[in-house]
Amino acid sequence: MNLQIEFKRYRNTFALLLLFIGAVSTTAHAQRRSEEEIKKIQDAKVAIITNRLNLTPEQSTGFWPMYNEYAQKRREIHRAQRKIINDKKAEGQNDEAVLSNLKEVQELRQKELDLEKEYQNKFLKVITASQVIELYKAERTFNDMLIQRLKQKN
Which stretch is the leader sequence (predicted)? Predict the structure, then answer.
């Protein structure tokens, strides 16, 4: 009788363990798929920018590390803006709190503009002014394409 009870306990523990491993595996697979999708998106962006800017090998060497740094800083600003907008709902807040949130968003927008000015000057040391304009156009084209693809998926 004790052997049967022990067997049932181990069987239940084993079933829970398998369920847990399955859940972790599914989560890891979804995360890996998500990381793969992000990598594909980033690769497409690099391809579009490279094609539009027609970078020489020397320009490419100086441009990409600088651009990646710029893009990361810009993503951080956008995340901060979304956090303020999404986390700090206006409902139930007094006008002062809402105005404070709006001011934070405006300050982040100014920070993004300052970042763009700073990196434009840095870019001009590596690429031409025409290539900087093409960079902005390529980013816009890429973002428009990405939005269209997302609309098609939904």
Answer: 1-30
Domain interval for residue 119: 61-126
The answer to whether residue 86 sits within a structural domain is: yes
Q: Is 49 exposed, middle or buried (0-12, 13-18, 19+ CB in 10 A)?
A: buried
Give the integer Cα–Cα distance in Å for 151 and 99.
Answer: 33
Residue 115 lies in a domain: yes
Rounded Cα distance, 81 and 104, in Å:
8
Same-domain check for residues 133 and 117: no
What does the block give as tokens for 56? 């020489």
* Calpha distance 72→62 (Å, rounded): 16
Q: In angstroms, how far is CA 105 from the centroid of its own chain?
A: 19
Within a domain: 26: no
Please give the distance of CA 50 from its chain centroid, rounded to a whole number: 20
Q: What is the C-alpha separation between 107 and 63, in angstroms, rounded?
A: 28
